[in-house]
Structures are given as C-alpha cells and as structure tokens.
C-alpha cells in the first residue's frame, strides 16, 4: 500500500467517490471553496437519460459524455475504483490513500466494464449500425430504458418491425397504470408489437438465431435484439468499510435530513445510493448534490450545524421520452402523453441543460 496522499487543504479536503450525475455536480460546486478530489472509474461522466438517443443517433452522445476535466477545472480527478474507507482516508484499487476532511459517497450504480470515452462512442456507433442493418428488432424488457429504446427506433426507423417483449403485466411498472396504458397505446400506434407477460430465455438468445420463442410458445422473428440491463447499485464494496453498518437491506446508505450518513459528522451520501424514500431520478440526485454542497460549506466555515439545509423527499415526477417529440409524464396528480411532456424533454433530453449546469456550452463539444 502506498503512503497516504495528503493534499493539504486546511480542514477543507473534500473527497467525492463516484462522478455520476450527483458526484460530478457536487465536485463542480465545491471546487473553488474546498480542496476537491473526485474519484471515479472513468475519465468522463455520461448523462444516462441520453443513452437511448445515442443508439439511433451516435453523434448525440458526443455532448452527453462529458470529460471530468472539462468542468473540474480547480479540483483533481483520480481515475480508479474506491475500495475502502477509513475515518480519515479513501483507499483506491491502485493502493492509493486519499485523505479527507469531508467525504461524499455518490457511487450510484456500478459500471463493471468501464470504457474510455472513445470506446463508449464506438459502442454507440456499433449499436447504431446494428439497428440500421436490421429489418426486425426485438427489445426485451418493459422498463423505461426498454420503452424509450423501442420508441426511439420506431420514430427514427418507422420501416423497421419492432417487437417489445416484457414478462410483467404492464409497461413502466415503476409508475401508475394510466401511464402504462397510454404508453402501450402510443407504441401500438407506432406499429410496435408489444407482448406482455411473456419472457424469452435469455441464455438461449443470440443474434445468429433469428427466431425467438417466448414463454407462451409464440415465435418472434428478429434480426437482432436489445436487452437494456440496469446497472447494479454500487454498494457491495461498502461492506468492507467503516460504513458496513450504515446500509439498509437493499444496500442503500441510510442518511439523515441533512444528507449525512446517520451517525457520521463528516460523511455525506447523495444520489441513488441513498435510502431516501423517493423514486430514484437524476434530477433528484442533482438536488441532493446542491443540498450536500451547501451543508459541507456550512461545516467547513465553522457555522452552527443547525444552519444546515434539510432535504425533503419529492413526490413522483417522471417523464419517459417517446422518440423526438412525444413523452409520457407521471406527475403527482395527473398523467400526460404526447407533445406537451415531449416539449419538456424529448428534443434535447436535458443534455444542453445538464451541460449548462456543469458550466459548459450546451451545444458545442471541443475535443
Ligand atoms: C437509461 C436511463 C434513463 C434515465 N432517465 C432519467 C430521466 O429521464 N430523468 C431522471 O431524472 N433520471 C433518469 N434516470 C435515472 C438517473 O440516471 C439516476 O437517478 C442517476 O444517474 C443517479 O445518479 P448518481 O450520481 O446517484 O449515480 P450514477 O449516475 O449511477 O453515478 C455513479 C457513479 O459512481 C461511479 N462508481 C461506482 N462505484 C464506484 C467506486 N467504487 N469507486 C469510484 N466510482 C464508483 C460510477 O462509475 C458512476 O460514474 C435514468 C437512468 C437510466 C439508466
């Protein structure tokens, strides 16, 4: 193990583990008032909700894969996996110890096969070529990523036969049944064939075998298939750390109203890794980042803890894009589908907005 790297900082050393939606924003916010180190597996952060558009339009991904160095101009970036935490340091997979006064855990979801930015862009290109070469495409799953992908393909490539197979009773089960029904209707109108309560034997599918048999013995012909597998929560590694008793039964970190890990004075957690009782969404992860940044500043400045901001869980607000113009939205009291929610999200998928929030040009990527 290497000697501890102490970057100085006079009680203002903030280490952020995880440079996703939440971690990148808090690192950016604190970089001019604290000594910030961001640790992540990749040299860039990817806007997750833009990923399905990148498959039908690979150049879209250029703006949604943001190098940490572009916004972290006054902090340092360590490209590694954090594997342990003590009361004073973070240990990385390379054996580097990074000392902290304040620690932020923002590990959200684990990227088991991290790719460098160019490899990720090439992956989008390859997926796009796969779509373009196929006459018929099967999407397996009925979650938001699967629905968004089926919709992107149906809108950009209306001549292709798209089939969506889902083993559950309805699409978008994480939101209300009205949204599911409206989405099903929308997809059918776009000639997407939707098969509910049917599964495909995943270990028997391959792109060579162009005929797929569902659990109801139905046959689906498809030149290729896509399986949008969600990334697992990145919490297993915490079991080896001082936070091993701070997780709930799902591996989520238990936080208080100030977004500090319960029982800890100088360790915060933000984003999807927290046990906050609300739907896990990126725009909420960004709100966590802003609250935690404020609270860390208060503590660093020696102000009273009672001045810290509190976070109140938000009620449900979800927009699932359906191609370039439409979307389905579930708000607290209503469900909408079509151009109105589409106007909010579907044209740019909040990419320009997110880039702007990170202090970058919403349109131009200069590499
Ligand atoms: C396809 C898709 C569409 C979505 N659509 C929307 C949407 O429209 N609107 C919305 O608000 N939300 C959306 N979400 C949800 C949103 O993306 C998540 O809520 C958000 O990404 C959570 O942010 P996070 O920072 O907590 O975690 P993540 O964004 O998952 O970031 C975690 C980071 O931690 C890093 N990491 C993990 N473990 C370690 C480790 N041990 N050491 C160092 N680094 C580590 C990872 O590499 C990653 O960069 C969508 C998600 C997906 C997948």
UniProtKB/TrEMBL annotation:
Protein name: FAD/NAD(P)-binding domain-containing protein
Higher taxonomy: Eukaryota, Viridiplantae, Streptophyta, Embryophyta, Tracheophyta
Span of domain FAD/NAD(P)-binding: 13-288
Protein role: Putative FAD-dependent oxidoreductase.
Gene3D superfamilies with a match to the protein in the record: 3.50.50.100
